[in-house]
Amino acid sequence: MEKIEGTMKVGIGKKIGAFSKKNAIVIVLVLLSVGFSIGNSAFLKPSNLINLTTQMAINAMLTIGITYVIILGGIDISIGSVAALAGVVTALACRALPAGVSLVTMVIVQLGVGISVGAGFGAFNGLMVTKFKVVPMIATLASLTIARGLCYIFSGGTSVSGLTSIYSWLGSARLFKTEAKPTGWLPIITIVVIIFVIIMHILLSKTVFGRHVYATGSNRNVAHLSGINTQKIIFLCYMICGAMAAVGGVLNSSKLQNGQPGAAESYEMFAIASTVMGGTSLLGGSGSVARAILGCAVVAIINNGMNLMHIDSYWQKVVLGVIILLAVVMDMMQKQKSN
Amino acid sequence: MKPTLQAINISKTFPGVKALTDVTVDFYSGEVHALLGENGAGKSTLIKILSGVYTPSEGQVLLDGREVKFTSPYDAISKKIAVIHQELSIAPDLTVAENIFLGSEPKKGKFLDRALMNEVSQGILDGMGVGKSIKATDVARNLTAAQQQMAEIAKVINREARVVIMDEPTSSLSEFEIASLFTQIRKLRDDQVTIIYISHRMAEIFEVCDRATVLMDGRLVRTQMVKDSSEAELVASMVGREIGDYYNRQQHTRGEEKVRVEGLTRKKEFKDISFSAYAGEILGIYGLIGAGRTETMETIFGARAQDSGKVFVHGKQVNFKSPKDAIAQGIGMVTEDRRLTGLMLGKSVKDNIVLPSIPFHKKKFGFANKLWEGQAAEEMKEKLTIKTPSIETIIGNLSGGNQQKAILGKWLIADSDILILDEPTRGIDVNAKSEFYTLMNDFVAKGGCIIMISSEMTEIIGISDRILVMHEGNLKGELTGADINEQSIIKLANA
């Protein structure tokens, strides 16, 4: 009995420790914000913060999807290419639409085509991983090159342009026009991302499907022996991942009002970094969409800050790489401690 | 005679826990000395101090009467103290000889002297009497668990160890293999080696040990000659009270047929298995490793595909494609390996308990019922007396016995009425075992059906109402009532 009381006492300390570990990302975010606002008083202005949300929108969509796959203990490095392909294909499809098409139709076609492309590629990845037992890294590496190649084939190597102005509504329009801000202050892109974050966060944290994702990532054998169709769960997660990446690609293409075959190059790295910084373990079994999005905000702030400090863009890549490494090393150290 | 190795007034404190308090034990050469105690009694801490993994907080370790201060396992090895761990530490891709010489490879000039390594290794294996079945040049991966253990013993012999510590060496061996392990232990003893032997299996203690030291809650209870003691006496001193009939045997009333298997076959694993299991009984399945027991049960559970045969559950023929189908029919399975196939170690007690039941309690639109999850886990925690600070505690931090109770709870809350238990008490201490047997009896008393695989002879005899014996993929026979005894089981298992 003595021992149990002991562990209970330790329990409270542990709880505080676990809480700060779990929410380390919040602390980092607050510290960064404070730091930047001291350096530049404009930083905390609502308009700047809203701009920041538009800057992180694409990465946020990629991050939502890959969080599902990483929780499974898998990885998907094809999301950057898949996002670009979705952008190119959507741009081509929308260019073929008759002139004078309504905004609603446009948005439905954009999201419909984009999500189909992404979910299709995700399904391909899922099939490779579940049916053909290809290691996720290799399966998605193949998809990465295939999707990028298709980008250039479909677009003829140049960006797909000549799109109507409503094509850019999703990516660059704003709501609530005021006198001070005639273009509006609330970006559509932010609303779209927030809607997806909420839906995908709830799907993961509140539903039976979500429970099964965590279980499959924690121990696939146990999940299978507990009556979970793990193959189906894995397949669906890759599909979700592809679809979310595609939405990101569509938003990006809409923002630029064209389809760039070279878009979102190596964006998978930003997404993985965001997810890991948001506390999702690369070993699978734990993590959350909401926290991954906070990780995404950290990446955006760091990028933003480095731009403000005029750090060379090549060096920015080095810094980001180091940050990913630090996040992973910290994750592994925690895992070792708990073992 | 002077003791070889002595632990004098050893105490060891970890942050928040005093693992050992003032423990003094003498170990003599040429004796097999059992170290007994429940999980958490301090056995592991003591052997880790003796083998240099931990340094004691207080007290001394004496070797040949002189104090030694080990700062790493390497120090202990160099003083010829060797440990054979529960989980074998063999390098699977190296040959037996390479394993035997691991860390002390002989060289000829700058290069490895492979010829000498193989020659010496084979010599040791021959000396042990296992040279026919294990060759020095065999790759370790291709050996059975028992043969790997023999290779570990060969390694210890090669190092000319004076003290060999064995931590649950028989946990993955069959009765037959245990017998050959004991032969090696006796040989080592006759060569004046000191053997410190840890096991939860009382029968083994009486078979192979000369003296026994009992620890409880980090304190020494006593050291005594094994032959002057009895199982009941040793167990009582381990748990600090009389636990009466350890298996809590109860009279069960057999009810209707729950499972019937006809001619079940899976090529290369088992063939033509036919039997029935009933409500209100514990059906024991005994056999050596490789008898096909786990494979048969996993096939019934839908985790493996059958080649031919029929399975009936609740009187209806079934064809389970996956465990999901079996669970829907009220079958639950507690697997052999908790860490690999039983638990999500990084998840909470609650997450583990509710896992199979989540889909059955879902709300509209596929939402999980969080309220029910919490209540279900609390209910099982109370009912099965799972010792955990809370249902949110990570299950990997609980003791083996409590983990096993949680796994049982997982199937109870899923309303299973047929439980397949595969080695359910492996690696859990006496007290937890006894509690687990009580839970099994309660389940059967309420009309449940248990099919239990066990390699532990005393356990299977102690708790089963009926026993099936398997050998090399065949069902060899059935024992009931007075026929349930060691001789008849061994006869069937080796036939």
Q: What's the short story on this structure?
A:
Chain A is mostly helical and 339 residues long. Chain A is built from 14 helices and two strands, in the order αααααααββααααααα.
Shape of chain B: globular
Seen as an oligomer or otherwise, the chain set is heterodimer
The proportion of strand residues of chain A reads under 5%
Gyration radius of chain A (Cα, Å) is 21 Å
Gyration radius of chain B, in Å: 24 Å
Mean pLDDT of chain A: 88
Largest sheet of chain A: 2 strands, antiparallel
CATH class of the largest domain in chain A: Mainly Alpha
Number of domains of chain A: 2
Number of helices of chain B: 17
Order of helices and strands of chain A: HHHHHHHEEHHHHHHH
- Report the end-to-end length of chain B measured between terminal Cα atoms: 46 Å
β-strand number of chain A: 2
User: Using CB atoms under 8 Å apart, which protein chain pair has the greatest interface?
Assistant: A-B, 32 and 41 residues
CATH topology of the largest domain in chain A: ABC transporter involved in vitamin B12 uptake, BtuC
> What is the typical, i.e. mean, pLDDT of chain B?
89
Question: CATH superfamily name of the largest domain in chain B?
Answer: P-loop containing nucleotide triphosphate hydrolases
Low-confidence regions of chain B:
none
